[in-house]
Fold this sequence. Notes:
Elements: E1 6-10, H1 16-30, H2 37-41, H3 45-57, E2 64-70, E3 75-84, E4 95-102, H4 111-125, E5 131-136, H5 142-147, E6 151-160, E7 163-172
Parallel strand pairs: 4-5
Antiparallel strand pairs: 1-2, 2-3, 3-4, 5-7, 6-7
Helix pairs in contact: 1-3
Amino acid sequence: MQELSFQIRDAHIDDVRSIAYIHVESWRSTYAGILPDDYLKNLAYQEREDLWAKVLSQADADKHVFVAIDLGTKEVIGFASGGPARGELTENCKGEIYAIYLLKSYQGLGIGQQLFEASRYHLNSQELIPFGLNVLTKNPSCAFYEKMGGRVIAQITVAIDGNLFEEQVYAWDE
């Protein structure tokens, strides 16, 4: 198999459609069997496009959105976003990684790690350390966050589509 070449760069407004697609497809593949099937089936690309168009059109030095590009196909294959901590994270953290998503076929190749490190670097440059993130406890990515040095500092309950789910809150001190 040919080695994948990829690049991490700042997201641009013309990446919105790709980011929205990855967001929806990642939820569908990652949360199959965890979240209700109807909920996943009804995730709307247009709603995610509207969300990411808004995020990318609002310039804010504290926040970031990075994309991973497959240099062979020139396609956006993943993204990460972050900024100041929100919600319960504000008790223990200054910063937060809001999202890291990759298309399933690109997972396990080191791209997620590079997106994570780009986010960590940006949060550090904005003095948003310590930082954290929330992830559903049944998400297989919990092992990734532990490998990246995250420690569980809390468990919380969240409502998604009228159902309650447990989330782990991970934190990093640097």
